[in-house]
Amino acid sequence: MLFLASGCQPAETVPATITTTPAGANVAPLNFIDVVEKAKPSVVVVETDFSAGSGWIIDADGIIVTNHHVIEDAGNIYVTLDDGRIFTAESVRSDSLTDIAIIYIDAQELPAADVSDCCDLKVGQPVAAIGNALGRGISLKGGWISRLDVTVTAGGLTNYGLIETDAAINEGNSGGPLVNMNGEVIGITSIKLIDVSVEGVGYAISMDTALPVIQELIEVGYVTYPLLGISGIHTVDFFIASSFGLDIDHGVLFTAVGSDTPAEQAGLEPEDVIIAVDGIEVNTLEELVKTVRSKEVGQEIKITYWRNGSEHTTYATLIEM
Questions:
Q1: Catalytic site includes residue 106
Q2: In total, how many domains does the chain have?
Q3: Do 170 and 24 belong to one domain?
Q4: Do residues 166 and 265 both lie within one domain?
Q5: Which of 174, 190, 206, 272 is catalytic?
Q6: Is-catalytic flag, 234?
C-alpha cells in the first residue's frame, strides 16, 4: 500500500541545474521547477471548522497524511486537492505522540507522492517545504537541511529524529511534505520554533520515523507503544549528579515508578540510574526513550542500573501504553 522511491540519491548528484563555472562567471541558481511539477499535485489543503493546514496523498485510493494537531478535536474536515476538488473526510486515524494523522476521503486514482527511505540525507542538502502556508493556498519554500536527528519538546511532547531546515515553515504548513530534489517526501513538516529572536528554524518528522506509524494507523487503526513505567526522567550530568548525590556521572535517572508496571515488577526504585538496556549503553533521556519505543509490547528487556554505588541487572516485560 505504501510506496518507497527506488532509493535515496546522494544530494550532490541530484540537482542537474547546478553547474561548475570558471571564476567570475555567472552560476546557475538552484531550480525547484521540476520538484514542484512532480510533488505539488500530491499536496492538499486540510481545513477544519477552526483551522487550516496541509497534507499529502500517500495512497491513490484516498489516503491523506497530515499532522494530528491539524485535525485534533475537529468536527468537519475538508480536503482540497490540487485540481480544486473538495472532499469531506470519511474517517480519521491519528497518533498524538508522534503528531501524525491519516485522513480517508472517497476518491480513487489520486496522484500519490513518492516517499524516500531517507537513507542518505545530509546536512546541506537542498529541500523544499510545500503546503498551505498562512492559509493562502499551496506554495513552495526552498531551503536546506540544517541538522539531522534533532530532538524538540513542544506542547508537552518530545519528538525525536526530526529534520531541521531553514526552509520557511509557517502556520498552515503543518502536515505538508518536506521533499528532496527528486520530489520525494522525506519528512512531514510539523514544528515551527516561534520566537521573535529566531528565524529560519523549522522541523519535519523524518519518514524513517513516520512510515511505521502511518503503516500501523492504516493496518491497525492506532499505534501501540511499549511501557516501562518510570517517570521524572533526567539525563545524568554534573548538575543532576550533584543534586541527587549520585556516585555515577552517566546514565538516566528516574524519580518515580508507576504502580503495577513492568518497572515496579522488575524491582526498580526511584533514583535508580539506568545505564544500559539489552547490553546497549543509554546515556541520555532521548536514548532511553528511543530504545524502549523500539521494542515490542510483551518483549522482555534486560536493564542494567546503578544503585548505592554498585551495578545491578534486572528484567522487565513491557506492556502496552
A1: no
A2: 2
A3: yes
A4: no
A5: 174
A6: no
